[in-house]
DNA sequence: GTGAAAGCGCTAACAA
DNA sequence: TTGTTAGCGCTTTCAC
């Protein structure tokens, strides 16, 4: 019953194969090319014994782990889920594990995770945060090796960054609205202090201005459905409401659309809609939602790539801007009044 | 420039605080209650030095890590994303990290992940797999301490399990269809060899039988949109098609609904629909989808709980069956012919 | 190409 | 209560 399992270690493999630990270790780490017969013996010993390296010992010895940390607000959001999937895949391909950390955009948890990672825990840190950032966080991030900022820039942090072309996203939305004849456009944004929010707004505004249209209503808030519901209420209570709305995220859009449905507002007949972020089955929505699509898989893949470069000593302060595109579906139509 | 950073260790803290390493170590692990002044000195030293424990050394020393492994098919699916979120949250609350592994339901990757975990890597393993299982996998899982099977049972594996009441889910769907007057019902299932698939079917069939209705069409396949599209094609080519369809997962449903839309089939007028799995914003779909809801957050939380119990030596072969419920929306209506 | 031995930073007997 | 010390299993100089 109390059968104490024998766990083979490197030295067991070495003894069985008739070589030293060093040889086995270096062979396993491809530090060394072994004569065919020696290699053979080692391989056999490993198989016979069922040897599996102990990752902790390995990590302790070399001072880093083959794991990367992924810090995101929440995995429950399709955008981040897709991002995590891409990161996981890219990491797996490089033989790296992914340590997942959800922060709920909570500053102290972010700080805590970064601190833990920073030590030795991971060989790289992929960080996404969508709120105002304290100097402490900025400081901690700047002290972190192998850091890559994803999706949202953080002013003052000097690291590799993989971001989207938010301005262009706003512009595409504005252009599309304008082409359909809209003149009064609303912007329902995320937190107003974020660069991404401002960029999306700026793109929208500039595209509108090109065609004598304008953004007549702006509202900012958290990336949450509740914010979308609030926005819907505000929008509907306006004396002269806009005819088109650009929503800055999927979460917000869900709340907004929900409230619009409940209020019996016809989309796109009475209100046209474009959402930034094409995660989730938006094509099955009522109506199918026109969206700004971000290449999420590429975001994750590039991030892992840059992380590897950054942790390999390359102090590249690279900033990558990924392009976005407009996916036309059925939530935009000419305004009723035209 | 080449500033070599001094990294404080436990012994630095000990020296600074004027105590021994043991004292600090045990204090930090709450193994020990220190006199207020001593505790004070230690705390101060830690803060001054900016000491952060090295988790690798810790793990190596104690033979286990404060990390749990989560092995799922893919994080890109909302169901698993929500599950991962729940697990992450529960783990975080217990001070545990989550190591994420996506397998794409690939047997060899599953085996590989389990092997790595098994060694020492994690203190518990949460495992989800939705396909036929090889004896090797079953063997490996049975050799794993702190294992909890989630969502899908694997015959022959003796461990704690947290599953849903799939039969009841099928029954609720069947009952709902029957109440609306449906007599010919279709079942679009996942892989036919899975217990969950069979249970959902059995529930549906039995509920139908109670009311002189029957399941006139069955089709099985992967949990993928493509399977749903195939199913839609098959359904539409039937001479005397069913009037209601119970779909076994969200992924399948997405493909099915997409194909149905393209074919111009009115839902629910011509075909009523219920989907097992209420992840994602199904209430915004066209039409809002009636669904069997599974308590995903509870699934994750219970799994972590059981894992902790299992790894604390408690060889509990507990099996938890979580209840499901019917969420009525607008995708079920009486059949046209009635 | 190969081996001996000194750590990596912490935990946990075992003493004191 | 507190300190001493021997590992945990692997990596990595540095000789041979």
Automatic annotation (TrEMBL), chains A, B:
Keyword entries, A-Z: DNA-binding, Transcription, Transcription regulation
SUPFAM superfamilies for the chain: lambda repressor-like DNA-binding domains, Periplasmic binding protein-like I
PROSITE patterns: HTH_LACI_1 (PS00356), HTH_LACI_2 (PS50932)
GO terms of molecular function: DNA-binding transcription factor activity; transcription cis-regulatory region binding
Domain spans labelled HTH lacI-type: 8-62
Protein name in UniProt: LacI family transcriptional regulator
